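Appendix B: complex inputs.
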Amino acid sequence: MSIESERREPLLSVDGLSVTFTGRSSLFGRADPLVAVSNVSFEIGRGETLGLVGESGSGKSTTGRGILGLVPASFGSVHLDGVEITGLGRRELRDQRRNMQMVFQDPYSSLDPSSPIGESIAEPLIVHESMSRDDAQRRVAELLERVGLTANHRQRYPYEFSGGQRQRVAIARAIALNPKLVVCDEAVSALDVSTQNQVINLLEELRTDFGIAYLFIAHDLAVVRHISDRVAVMYLGRIVEIGPTTRIFDDPKHPYTEALLSASPIPHPRRQRERSRILLPGDLPDPRRPPSGCTFRTRCAHAMDVCAEVEPGPVQVAGGGEVRCHLHGPGTPTETPVSVGGVA
Ligand SMILES: Nc1ncnc2c1ncn2[C@@H]1O[C@H](COP(=O)(O)OP(=O)(O)OP(=O)(O)O)[C@@H](O)[C@H]1O
Ligand SMILES: [Mg+2]
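Resulting structure:
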């Protein structure tokens, strides 16, 4: 493959991904299936950071988990570096896992509280690379130094570290096998602001040094704005808007994006004063029974008749990206897949 075509091919392609959780059966029958991620498509380039935002329950974590194959897709496909991830068997998926890793808000999701951290970091090296214990220990020392800790930390247990240090350990484990993509799911959300900045600087250095791409899921829009090249906005399992970070923040097109941004302070006192906060009426609708047409219409100040009838398709936005909103045109009609049972 030529360098040109390598550049053009995205690292990650998510195409019409849906993830459905089936309800538990009970005495009262089976609950409706919940489509947590519905027909989601986007790409991430090599070394690129895509921010993913949206209120709690909008499907951000499930999107990340769907990409890594941690929850099965009910529709659609995910390709990483040309390899289709969806539908891989357990073993093949385990082999692919080296290329894509996840860092969680709670580092204990990947660190065993009862083992010295050196062992947790060495584990993927021993499992995937069949490294000898000595080689793995040498590599662990290197990794710890790379994330701003020292080789001596190997013997310590997770509880002996501060929150920021523990997140550095989780990052060292995540990058041990030189992944191409790291999904950061609220990875800095539990940290205080100055520790947050240090960990973000580390993630940016790793991106520069190793060309790692990130799907960066976070509530804090200021953090997302700082780290992301592009941003995707999710509402009730759908991506309603996506585009370059500056375009999304300076010229949001979707009423939901506008509302989300209006609730977050901007580093510009005059513009902050001029901007009024848009309060959304009501709560996120029950995802088991989403509104017809545009799922945002029940909370949208601009809802029109068509919004209840037709789910808006993607419309290209001047300045980059796409929006799904009838205010901006009919878009390309999308066929919302009908959810099927028997998954997840
Ligand atoms: N294992 C599961 N079984 C059933 N439903 C689930 C499961 N995991 C998530 N859900 C549901 O899927 C929807 C999306 O959840 P998800 O955790 O992806 O949202 P999120 O955007 O990450 O939210 P938060 O910001 O709170 O982390 C929610 O309605 C949630 O209740
Ligand atoms: Mg989440």
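The first helix runs from residue 3 to 8.
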